[in-house]
Amino acid sequence: MTTAQTDEVVKEPPAAATPSDERERERMRRRLARKRGGGWWPYVFLAPWFVGLFGLTIYPMLDSLYLSFTKFDLLTSPEWIGGDNYDRMFTDDPVFWDSVHATLLYVVVSVPLKLALALGVAILLNRPLRGIGLYRAAFYLPSLLGGAVAVAIVWRQVFGGDGLFNDVLGWFGITGQDWISSPDTALYTLVLLAVWQFGTPMVIFLAGLKQLPKDVYEAAAIDGASPVTRFFKITLPLLTPIVFFNVVLQIIDAFKTFTPAFVVSNGTGGPLNSTMLYSLYLYKKGFTDLQMGYASALAWVLFLVIAGFTAVNFVASRYWVHYDD
Amino acid sequence: MGHHISRRTLFRTASGLAVAGALGSALTACGGGTGAGSTNDKLTMTWWGSDERHAAYKKVLAAFQKKNSSIEIEERYSGYDGYFDKFNTNVAGGSAPDLLQMDTALVAQYARKGVLAPLDSYVGKSLDLTGFSKTLLAAGTVDGKLYGVPSGIGVNQLTINRSGLEKLGVAYPDPEWTWADLKKVSVEIHKKSGGKLYGTDDVGGGTLQAFEIFAREKGQQLFSTDGKKLGFTSDTLQEWWEYWADMRKAGACPPPAITSAAHNDLTKNAIVIGKALFTFDTGVYGAGGSITDATLDFLPTPRGDWSGAREGNYVNGGVLLSATKASKRVADSVKIVSFLAQDPTAIKDMQLLRGIPPTEKARDLIKAGLNDTDKRNLAMADYISNRVAKATDVLEAPQPPPQGADQIWDLLFQSNLSIAFGKTTVKSQLGKFFDQAAGILSA
User: Which N-terminal stretch is annotated as signal sequence (chain B) (predicted)?
Assistant: First the structure.
């Protein structure tokens, strides 16, 4: 199989050791043994990374955990209130549930669509065409632009009442509505924006497709398997590790979506909280309503939910992800 | 077999790292903590507003610096969106501005949290407030201390597209008009325009510009004196929402999609996009200059048409200027505030860009240089404040709104929108509104 072949290429047979090499190695081993225990040099070199890890990640995380049990308005000192924030979230905050609803809908709709499109385009781009590099770049481009505030603003215009999208519908005699300002459609404009940015998973799929062994396809073609059969029986199973990787990343990403919701809804999460994605609600609570303790609690619930989803994904992956080793 | 890394291990590791990284960033965004103050020796001043207001401030501050060369000012300005989000973050991070433009709606909140510096000890010395009336200063006074100096007189006015009315042949309403008159003229506009135009924007969810005045006409305030409860009854709100539901049904105000689009976005205001001829949003004109090409005129908020209806208008302080408590330059900030309030050239340069000037002297100074729309704006403000001064049945001006007020306003807006979209009924939304409002105010 391929792995065996690669191993043979990568591994060069070591040159036969000479007696002087043996002595040199022995000396090195002793010097290292002496250093072990008192060897603080490695930590000196690692220090910048440790400072970053503790100062910028672990400390703020612990701080936010503490704050999630407090009433903290950013301007005066936090006040310990135990689990009240968590209690309020689940029992006394309808907007929280609106945001959970909007976020779950967004994740469930946008992730499969985006991955399906990414895989489809990756398969099309995995052909020896003239100028294929150009096509790949063109399809990747939205992902470079899509995260930008400017694009979200354009989206606002395109799907507004007198926007481009309705103009196009007008050519077919359809009278559109204001898609951004209707609570039934606003979230789907965000989904569309997310799906349009399929470039990153596409590139990963493409890399995966290029790795697939040619001999299996040749054998299948000789046996008379149709392209559809080949896709479902060979490509997809062999690609499952990549699919899994993309699913995990895209779900996490979708849960954390903030910018498009903020810009498209003009910071309101409206109409009627239909675009109140979780991160946007968290931001509003923390920085607009000055309830930083509550916002921290929201962040921890998000953390646990994403961790939960990811754990379920990893467990479920045993049943559908196919590793060839 | 030696160094072979299986695909399983590779993907597991890669996924694990990606997950760790992605999760970590979700949590660390919300750290708190206060740092040291700004080391910059410039005095920082922030404000929000339109381009015209920015230009006027810059001109006035340049003139100030010419006279006070020892005070260097760093100017930071933006639109209203995000202005206070940024201020909160700056205060928490120890980099609050020394002097800032403050919203009358938020001054009590910040004063009570100890963010703002009391200015009483400067009044009459470096802070010259000659000509400011006591009722006007109340807008910046919290618990008996002065935390913000009002930039001008503010009254609620509707902005009217006068040329649009003339084009349709609709008579210009009398300033003593009532809510019933508003409905009548709005329906007329809708009919005469062949259904293309609505009369007014939908403010069933609007607060200061409309509902507060309606409640005051009923003899009720938005909040109780201690700020812990709502000050109006369920009946008042029900009548209000039903009025606007009728208006929508009659085509007197636009459907919810237009209302929703205009939320926090003046450029989508119904009068600006040419869908209505009246707007309750004072920002359309007051923020400086007209956004539409139409001839604009002004009217007071309609009167109550029931027996015993009271005068609902009141005079507020426009925007305020406040110094922060953490600032080491309060004395210098006060000099700037005083300059803006009293210096004749500063007053002339600012015109109506921070509201109608607070003193008689200042109003006389600017009158000559005003354009026609400004003149009409000033005349209507005079008309309303005279009416308020003469009224015997008027409630006292509202207290600065309590903490959570902005959430209640948002709740009011969302509730009205929800009714307009047909997602709920007036009756069932009333219960939800009062429940949630109580929760917000007691938090």
Answer: 1-31
Q: For residues B299 and B424, state if they share a domain.
A: yes
Is B18 inside a domain boundary?
no
pLDDT at B277: 94
Q: Which chain B residues touch A73 with a CB distance below 8 Å?
A: 113
- Res. B29: pLDDT tops 50: no
Q: Are B136 and B317 in contact (CB under 8 A)?
A: yes
Chain B residues within an 8 Å CB radius of A3? 4
Position A289 scores a pLDDT of 87
pLDDT reported for residue B19: 53
Residue B47 has pLDDT above 90, yes or no: yes
Average pLDDT over residues A102-108: 96
**pLDDT of amino acid A86:** 96
Size of interface A-B (CB pairs under 8 A): 163
Tokens of A34: 């002496």
Question: CB of A304 within 8 Å of any CB in chain B?
Answer: no
Secondary structure percentages of chain A, helix, strand, coil, to 5: 70, 0, 25
Per the listing, tokens 């992605």 go with B22
Shared-domain flag, residues B358 and B234: no
pLDDT score at B404: 85
Residue A28 has pLDDT above 50, yes or no: yes
Domains and CATH numbers, chain A: 130-318 (1.10.3720.10)
| CATH at residue B171 | 3.40.190.10
Domain count, chain B: 2
Point out the residue among B11, B33, B113 whose CB comes nearest to the CB of A76: B113
| B137 within some domain | yes
Residues B161 and B227 placed together within one structural domain of the fold: yes
Nearest to B263 among A268, A286, A292 (CB): A268
What is the rounded average pLDDT of the residues B100-123?
92
**Please, is B95 exposed, middle or buried when counting C-beta atoms within 10 Å of its C-beta (0-12, 13-18, 19+)?**
middle
- Statement to judge: residues B172 and B239 lie in one domain: yes
Cβ <8 Å between A75 and B417: no
Mean pLDDT of chain B: 87
Across A60-69, A291-300, B125-134, least confident range: B125-134
Query: Do B32 and A178 lie within an 8 Å CB cutoff?
Result: no
Contact B291, B166 (CB under 8 A): no
Cα B122 from Cα B124, distance rounded (Å): 6
**Residue A39 clears pLDDT 90, i.e. is over it:** no
Helix, strand and coil content of chain B, in percent to the nearest 5, comes to 45, 15, 40
B135 in the same domain as B104: yes
Dist CA B283 CA B207 (whole Å): 13
The mean pLDDT of chain A is 86
> In the predicted model, is pLDDT for residue A99 greater than 90?
yes
Of B378, B395, B428, which closes a domain? B378
Asked if B328 is an interface residue toward chain A (Cβ–Cβ < 8 A), one would say: no
Q: For residues B94 and B143, state if they share a domain.
A: yes
Q: Which of B207, B55, B152 is nearest to B382 (CA)?
A: B152
Q: For position B24, what pLDDT does the model report? A: 52
* Residues B5, A212: Cα–Cα separation, whole Å: 17
User: What is the domain extent for residue B340?
Assistant: 43-151+316-378
User: What is the share, in percent, of chain A residues with pLDDT greater than 70?
Assistant: 90
